[in-house]
Amino acid sequence: MSQRKASADAGPATIRDVAERAGVSVASVSRVLSGNYPVSDDLRRRVMKVVRELDYVTNAHARSLAGGGTPTVAILINHITGAAFAHVAKGVEGAASLRGWLTLVGTTGDDPERELALVNLMRQQGVTAVVLLGGAYDFEEYQLRMARFARSLDAAGSHLVLVGRPPLEGDVPATTVDYDNEGGAYAMASHLLSAGHRRVLVLPGPAELTTAQGRLNGARRAFEAYGVPFPPDMVHHGPYDFEHGLRAVESVLREGSRFTAILAGTDVVAAGAMQALRSAGLRVPEDVSVVGYDDIPLASQLTPKLSTVHVPYEEMGRVALRAVADRREGGGTGRRGGDGAHLILGTHVVVRQSVRPPERQG
Amino acid sequence: MSQRKASADAGPATIRDVAERAGVSVASVSRVLSGNYPVSDDLRRRVMKVVRELDYVTNAHARSLAGGGTPTVAILINHITGAAFAHVAKGVEGAASLRGWLTLVGTTGDDPERELALVNLMRQQGVTAVVLLGGAYDFEEYQLRMARFARSLDAAGSHLVLVGRPPLEGDVPATTVDYDNEGGAYAMASHLLSAGHRRVLVLPGPAELTTAQGRLNGARRAFEAYGVPFPPDMVHHGPYDFEHGLRAVESVLREGSRFTAILAGTDVVAAGAMQALRSAGLRVPEDVSVVGYDDIPLASQLTPKLSTVHVPYEEMGRVALRAVADRREGGGTGRRGGDGAHLILGTHVVVRQSVRPPERQG
């Protein structure tokens, strides 16, 4: 709340000093330093030269780091190579960076022990918040573990945010940012059903994962609403990966089961399913319609472009960061201990080129 | 070097205590806790129950964390959504996890200021090493900045490792893990040339990026070796992304330039190029051959599967971590200040289905 005087003499160099010495505008310096805009090599070189001369960067950060003051958000993610949650992380870090905050990402490898070790480490380092991403496996154990994390972080003045994970039951000091997972699956299945598909192969994902359970429930509700049977032998569980989509479709085709559409649990699973169809000489969407879930960049890079459910992953990340920042700015106001906010973002179907009405009833 | 006694009474719970109480083998507990193997829900529940009862996990990590003892490796990466370097990070964290080390990832958004802030933060936190990933833009400024990082980390008892970046000149305390970038491009271009291609569209990447420069040089050398002209108008620079591959090929097709093959700077650029060809009614590889670079999973998920250059990204990550661990184990032996090791891993062409001899000379 205190105002700072801009002084070019005694204090550390300001962005204005850099701009003056480099003979460019403050906006240009900002563009070079932010790295978010294209700048000419010449401008970049000129500005960075002055930045080094004035030791501007170091000073700017020394001010805040000296007191351990740069707010830092830690994101914990199962695997660094998962596309969907990388976009959540991107959203968090984009919003953090706008505020001058730093972001760190830790990977747990689905290992609860590593997750705990990272949460402990983050607590000791005094991070502003810990954001945990991704579906949860074991509901009961998950609730206990997360409640413990939430309380331990809260006691240390930090805060737990769960993104794309089930909210915590009871009075637990954590914020949940979620998306309408089941609603998206309901809409996607309805899209296939309203195009006339009746025999749909469903590849919802790992049976024990909360997101896959929600996607399967959404699809089942849509079938019920349309009065279409939902035969269990048309549901094949498996990992959220390309290989699973490929193998599942290969095996169903070998068995000779008939279907006119595939409802895949993720875009990556859909990509695998499409490759299996093509290898079997089946065209998408002429012979079989295929839809995915997530709307990662891959979806619009496939041929045909994949109709899918848009999940606002990056927006979820931004919302999570904003929730933390708002909480911090309202700080010290005794909101601790029972806020347990639960924000749910909408999902929607993105219609592209992978769905057509079936030639004849499957 | 000191041996630890396994005691089940006074000291903290051991994995053996957990196994005994849960009535399962030590191997089973290890499988549940590692999260790397499929285990039944029942086994997982049983083991985690005992883990909670004995507070096994907490104890195990409390021991090392109490003294700030868990070695932690920080990886700094430009963008979290880049596939290739996510695999380096995966390699680092896999090798780190095997040793019980933790890994943190920070993203710089191509912003030198954020990079500096993260390196400073890591130095203060006493991380064992900072691993910087990805191509570099401005050679001179890069050398200065990295040398400063290396010395500042070294002074704090940490160590700088550069992966997929140019090595540092002079006596700088840093380790570089690199791959034979130019050699891979030479081999890939030779593969097209030996199939008979003479008019090749080259999309090497951003002109100012060191990796793109290396890939272009490798291709040029191959053309020289085959005595084939390398016309500058067939080289189109642009970002390493799908959109660039798509737009560049669309524009070259519009201009009416003839070519029988495309040498793309990355697999993602190749995917964009393939979509542009398909939209124009051209078949791969019957009408145009296409090759990529990186060998990310996408390459074998495209139709046809993409011939490309395999870069051992994950192995580079493992090698980087091992270099740090070896250094640490040999620690305190005055190897500081001038080790500057430079490890170069090999690359090779992976032949898949996207190359055929041209129908007639282009």
From TrEMBL, chains A, B:
Segments crossing the lipid bilayer: none
Pfam families: LacI (PF00356), Peripla_BP_3 (PF13377)
Keywords of the record: DNA-binding, Transcription, Transcription regulation
A GO term, aspect molecular function: DNA binding
Domain HTH lacI-type, residue spans: 13-67
SUPFAM superfamilies, sorted: lambda repressor-like DNA-binding domains, Periplasmic binding protein-like I
PROSITE patterns: HTH_LACI_1, HTH_LACI_2
Stretch forming the signal peptide: none
Name of the protein in question: LacI family DNA-binding transcriptional regulator
